[in-house]
Amino acid sequence: MGRVIAITNQKGGVGKTTTTINLGAALAQKEQYTLLIDSDPQGALSIALGIPAYDLEFTLYSILTDTRIPVAAVTHHVRPHLDVVPANIDLAGAELQLVAMMGREYVLRDALANLRDKYNFILIDCPPSLGLLTVNALAAADEILVPLQCEFLAMRGLDALIDVVARVQRRLNPKLKLIGIVPTMYNPRRIHARAVLDKVRATYPNKVLNVTIKESVRFAEAPEQRRTIFEIDANNEGAAAYRELAEVILNAQPE
Ligand SMILES: Nc1ncnc2c1ncn2[C@@H]1O[C@H](COP(=O)(O)OP(=O)(O)OP(=O)(O)O)[C@@H](O)[C@H]1O
Ligand SMILES: [Mg+2]
């Protein structure tokens, strides 16, 4: 049975898309059949993996607004063991259209239901908001992974996120589990970053994973070349960290 993992944090620019792409690529390299779902109208994940998302007629939007369209009809095969359901700006409209739909929180869950036999992992890249797209991802997921930029302002949104997760667990998806918080863009030379990491570890004991993704300009360069971190610099420390994260996820027994 495949595991569905939502990569989520309502704070923008904390490394959600980078984590979805590179964790997905690392799992695929370990021969895990992996599907990435771009659930952000910015379409950054799709574009970073070389899909010309802005020109596409069939995207995640199609699945969410017409339940007769199967996921396979909008899926792109991008690398060995790695598939993508792309998104573009159309998805911003889905958020509004979902409001009027019956069972609006469960549209994504139902669409993914018969894919669990086909994939070992389905990773959902959430948008930087707590709207219906994120709620659909949390209702569809078995687990969530929270990338956290090691900065004061990024830390402040965590309580709100943990509240939403608790509400989703109560009302929509009692089985939802937190895999953990993964610190991103960490620069160990900065006192501030070290202090933030210590504070998060103290505030959320046992919730912060031992893998830390360091800051590296290679992460900004990779999407421009439509490549993963492994394809531009397999020996990069960041590449090693995402391989390690994939190992942690493979061995995870979420509480
Ligand atoms: N470890 C890292 N070191 C340096 N830069 C990084 C790292 N991870 C991500 N970045 C860069 O930071 C920016 C934001 O990352 P990313 O797009 O993954 O965040 P996001 O949370 O998905 O953003 P959004 O909320 O807009 O969807 C990007 O330019 C990305 O290339
Ligand atoms: Mg993103």
What is this structure's SSE topology?
Blueprint: E1 3-7, H1 16-29, E2 34-38, H2 44-48, H3 60-65, E3 76-79, E4 82-85, H4 90-99, H5 107-112, E5 121-125, H6 132-140, E6 143-149, H7 152-156, H8 158-171, E7 177-184, H9 191-203, H10 218-224, H11 229-232, H12 237-251
Parallel strand pairs: 1-5, 1-6, 2-4, 2-5, 6-7
Antiparallel strand pairs: 3-4
Helix pairs in contact: 1-12
Commentary on this structure:
The protein has 255 residues and is of the alpha/beta class. The protein has a single domain (3-251), classed as Rossmann fold, CATH 3.40.50. 42% of the residues lie in helices and 15% in strands. The chain has twelve helices and seven strands. Strands 3-4-2-5-1-6-7 form a seven-stranded mixed β-sheet, with helices on both faces. Residues 12-18, 40, 42, 44, 128, 184-185, 213, 215-216, 219-220, 223, 238 line the site of adenosine-5'-triphosphate (ATP).
CATH architecture: 3-Layer(aba) Sandwich
Assembly form of the protein: single chain
Provide the gyration radius in Å: 17 Å
Strand order of the biggest β-sheet: 3-4-2-5-1-6-7
Low-confidence stretches: none
Number of helices: 12
Order of helices and strands: EHEHHEEHHEHEHHEHHHH
Structural domains: how many: 1
Short description, anyone?
The chain has 255 residues and is α/β, with parallel strands linked by helices. It has one domain (3-251): 3-Layer(aba) Sandwich (Rossmann fold).
